[in-house]
# Entry
Amino acid sequence: MIGRITIRNGVVSGLEEVSFSLDDPDIFYGYGCYEVLKLRGGRVYFPEFHAERLVESIRILGIEYSFTKEDVVLAINELVMNNGLSDCNIKILVVGHEKRAADWYVFATPALYPPEDAPEKGVTCLLYHGERQFPRAKSLSLLLSTIAYRTARSFDCYDALLINALGQITEGSRTNIFFCDSMSTDLSRPVIYTPPDHQVLSGITRMTVLETLKDAGWRYEERELDLSAVLDGFVSLMISSTSTRLVPVGSVIDRGKENSGLPGLVEIPRSVILDKAASLYASWLATH
# Structure
């Protein structure tokens, strides 16, 4: 954590005032949800959008709560001001309880950045079989995501891409996915795809990227992403998250294969369409 001040239930508090009981079943079983926001150069990115998604996660999980979206935005600003923050990530944690309103906390954590050469070289991701529970809620049920991500890191991968029982890639353990036809180069009629809403936790970056494409007059569609299309080189990939914006995927590792001296290394074709989309989004962010 960063700073000596946190926000507990909307009240400015010192870190020493925040504690949990080891036998609290709500903590032990992870009954809750969270959000992560980006603070860069003193600017908090899209706090209202994050507050809205937080409340939607609470609704999906059936958690009783007594704060408003406006309370959340105010708490974020209070945290930044009281700690003198300029560059970090901000986490909002909600812990649900039985027969009483949830407790909620706002605190700062170190900023995360993609590798410096990621925009040029792309990143490598690990293919991992698994599906999150309640995919549209950003819940504290993080076992699958944690194991998938740590396994990916053990292969020196940037993230793990999750594969469902139908053989479709849905999302990363901490990223959303965009893709396009790897053979398409026509920037006058570009089409970009993203896995369907009902399969994924739709990140704030994903949402604002789609808004950017709409503003630019680009066509985008929700479409299932078959694993076979990735392994056969038919699609190009790009991933998004709060901390990383848009990053091209240069390769994936499929542990079921042997290739290039590394277990199942599959190169992903680079796309001028996805590169242009990333450029459009960077320009959009600069004005919003």
About this structure: The chain has two domains: 2-109, 118-286. The chain has eight helices and 16 strands.
